[in-house]
Amino acid sequence: MPELPEVETVRRGLNDLVLNKQISSVDVYYDKMIIGDVQKFKDTLAGKVIETVDRRGKYLLLRFSGDVTVISHLRMEGKYYVKSKDEPLDKHTHVVFNFVDGTTLRYNDTRKFGRMELVKTGMEVNNSGIKKLGPEPTVDTFKVDDFYQALQKKKKVIKTALLDQTIVTGLGNIYVDEVLWMSKIHPQTPAKNLSYDEAKKLHDNIIKELNMAIEAGGTTIRSYTDAFRNEGGFQFSLKVYQKTGEPCQRCQTPIERIVVGQRGTHFCPKCQILKP
DNA sequence: CCCAATGTTTTGCC
DNA sequence: GGGCAAAACATTGG
């Protein structure tokens, strides 16, 4: 569900829905969702005003008054909703931020994989996950030369290298398959075997693809919705992800599914040749 | 019942 | 200590 475009869409939704609201109290129904002391999490946030919502990679950064930041990662199925305090709790609601105006921000997560952590604003860079993130996939921060050099040093195959967030952040299983298809690169190509031209093509496609997906409001495969409960629109633009057996849109060859790095992987066996 | 699922962290092995 | 691959996390749905 949430790769960078989906997280960015959630961020924008939250910035429309909860800005400048003051927290009266926080309820936590599943303690493991909170990294660190749960009581401190609740006590610190009470009375704080949410000033903005930022994003780094796939991490949301909820900025509160008093230099308080909540790092929130949605992992596989995390979702935020804004509801009136009177509405009954969903079975999978694990954290509720109650606002003084009678509305609530609710964190739902069917698989309970998501995590939140309270830090002093600015200290989020010390978070173990955020610390090792590579550049954001934008023209200003993501440079072809750096990308090529990083790939040269890797022993992993290209798909696994792109998923690990350290070379460039934001890609997940869906968009990796898509950008590799667009770039005509086989997912099991050793990263260091990519030519400079291939690296450049891949680099350009990563930026283009993620931006197009953000414009479409993300991709809804099974469960993703944004903070307004809207589904994304990019699933209609997917070329290979979960298209096993369907004809490649370039050459009509049926799309194949293999497993790479424990992940389902979709590619065109004719367009994306594994070089010896 | 068995398998797969969008992501990161932990574990264990070089 | 780093890099890497596999397991783990918890639940739903086909």
Automatic annotation (TrEMBL):
Domain Formamidopyrimidine-DNA glycosylase catalytic: 2-114
Record keywords: DNA damage, DNA repair, DNA-binding, Glycosidase, Hydrolase, Lyase, Metal-binding, Multifunctional enzyme, Zinc, Zinc-finger
Residues of the FPG-type domain: 239-273
List of catalytic residues: 2 (schiff-base intermediate with dna), 3 (proton donor), 58 (proton donor), 263 (proton donor)
PROSITE patterns in alphabetical order: FPG_CAT (PS51068), ZF_FPG_2 (PS51066)
Record GO terms (molecular function): 8-oxo-7,8-dihydroguanine DNA N-glycosylase activity; class I DNA-(apurinic or apyrimidinic site) endonuclease activity; damaged DNA binding; double-stranded DNA binding; zinc ion binding
EC number(s) on file: 3.2.2.23, 4.2.99.18
Self-association and partners: Monomer.
Biological role stated in the UniProt entry: Involved in base excision repair of DNA damaged by oxidation or by mutagenic agents. Acts as DNA glycosylase that recognizes and removes damaged bases. Has a preference for oxidized purines, such as 7,8-dihydro-8-oxoguanine (8-oxoG). Has AP (apurinic/apyrimidinic) lyase activity and introduces nicks in the DNA strand. Cleaves the DNA backbone by beta-delta elimination to generate a single-strand break at the site of the removed base with both 3'- and 5'-phosphates.
Protein name: Formamidopyrimidine-DNA glycosylase
Naturally occurring in which organism (per UniProt): Ligilactobacillus hayakitensis DSM 18933 = JCM 14209
Species classification: Bacteria, Bacillati, Bacillota, Bacilli, Lactobacillales
